[in-house]
Amino acid sequence: MSRYTVKDANASVTTTELLKRKQAGEKISVVTCYDAAFGRIVEGSPVDVVLVGDSLGNVMLGFDSTLPVTVDHMIHHASAVTRVVRRPLVVVDMPFMSYQVSVEDCLRNCGRVIKESDAQAVKLEGGRRIVPQVKALVDAGIPVMGHLGLTPQSVHALGGYKVQGKGSEARKAMIEDARALTTAGIFALVLEMVPADLAAEITAAIEVPTIGIGAGGGCDGQVLVLHDLLGFDQDFNPKFLKKYANLGAVIAEALVTYDNEVKAGAFPQTKNQF
Ligand code: KIV
């Protein structure tokens, strides 16, 4: 499949399809993905949406937060994903300081991401303060996913990776942010580390689908970091995570067996030779 081939709307998940899912009461599944190796596997799965999250800073690049991630990092990884992912909708996270400075800066950076990575949408963190950016992007024809609750790019301002929206003022503010983003034109909203009853209230209050992570079962869909749900890191066990496999241990065991066989002369065998 060549780049710049517009996806077949009948065979691919679109932003309008997600809206219909909400209206029909059908749940939406989202996973992160950062490269072609996993992209091929996700493409063969029934998952609806692929998020090229800026969590790639932690998962792929070894940073201890998402703050150092650049627009070039996002384009590099998103391009690898879109080369192989055709059916699910591909959304790219805009990294820290690529959209906050001004509307013009935001349009330029998001435009670059869409043009150079061939993804279909961007995700921005924040509420009412980014409404001008969201409106400008939607006007320019770029679909936007919002992100409220724990917004990891604001980790220093939030004082850590904590549950958000506790207390009546914080709840009210998040509902107002969700409404403002919806009016500005977002097609979906990620709610991260939000009390389940607040996430359910926001889900009922807005027309677009909510996608939860640590936000309970009342959301219209769920998102998890792919490497987390596959169990790459045995020491990472937050309450919101369910591990569907234990690949970290499987890979570690495979590497020990490979190392043993190489050193014992048991690999390669005759059948592996030419
Ligand atoms: O960067 C990311 O992976 C995310 C999800 C956790 C929602 O923003």
Q: What's the CATH topology name of the largest domain? A: TIM Barrel
Q: Give a list of the ligands.
A: 3-methyl-2-oxobutanoic acid
The CATH architecture name of the largest domain reads Alpha-Beta Barrel
Query: How does the overall form come out from the CA principal axes?
Result: globular
| Main sheet strand line-up | 1-2-3-4-5-6-7-8
Mean pLDDT, nearest integer? 96
Secondary-structure blueprint of this entry?
Layout: H1 15-24, E1 28-32, H2 36-43, E2 49-52, H3 56-59, H4 71-82, E3 89-93, H5 103-117, E4 121-123, H6 131-139, E5 144-149, H7 155-158, H8 168-184, E6 188-192, H9 196-205, E7 210-213, E8 221-224, H10 226-229, H11 247-264
Parallel strand pairs: 1-2, 1-8, 2-3, 3-4, 4-5, 5-6, 6-7, 7-8
Helix pairs in contact: 4-5, 5-6, 8-9
Bound molecules: 3-methyl-2-oxobutanoic acid.
Describe the structure.
- An eight-stranded parallel barrel has the order 1-2-3-4-5-6-7-8, surrounded by six helices.
- The mean pLDDT is 96.
- The chain has eleven helices and eight strands.
- It has 274 residues and is an alpha/beta fold.
- The chain has two domains: 6-243, Phosphoenolpyruvate-binding domains (TIM Barrel, Alpha-Beta Barrel), CATH 3.20.20; 247-274.
- The protein has helices spanning 15-24, 36-43, 56-59, 71-82, 103-117, 131-139, 155-158, 168-184, 196-205, 226-229, 247-264; strands at 28-32, 49-52, 89-93, 121-123, 144-149, 188-192, 210-213, 221-224.
- Bound molecules: 3-methyl-2-oxobutanoic acid (KIV).
